[in-house]
Amino acid sequence: MTEKLLGQLAKTLSPKRLAHCRGVSETAASLAARYGADIGKARLAGLLHDCARGMPSNLLLQVAGASGIVVNDVEQREPMLLHAPVGAVIARRDYGVDDPEVLAAIRWHTTGGPAMALLDEIIFLADYIEPTRSFPGVDRLRALAGENLQAALLAAYDQTMHHLLAERWLIHPATVEGRNALLVKMKTK
Question: What angle do CA 132, 42, 98 make, to 5 degrees?
Fold first, then answer.
């Protein structure tokens, strides 16, 4: 199954992006084993999470519109953010995935969100720390991910927001909502 999916993904993704997808899949499987999620679902969601990443902005907007995805102001200005929700559509349509948990994990992997399930959190974090990622602080995040999933998620949100603020880029509302929801969840334990 994996080799068939990889062959299909290789038709639409660059070799670098494909290596990233493999890295996310393996990292997600490891996190799933560590935190009690379904390893097979984590591996599949990780492999397919960027299946729409090679689509141009105009096509992402077109597929989003045709699929009933409500495009907010931030996504209208930064259509590449739509590769996640459109990816869930593509995973269902072109790869035959009908598992709602896997599709949700693909849907939320870029922005995060306020009501993420364990698999969503694992794919979000795996996308951030998989082995081909290289940025200051990634090793600290990888170590933290092995110790405390929520602490690692919060650090990933924080680092993302610092980067977006420093670059004066738009911040997706789901990222803010996801970070706030995580903080509330952590403080009520």
Answer: 125
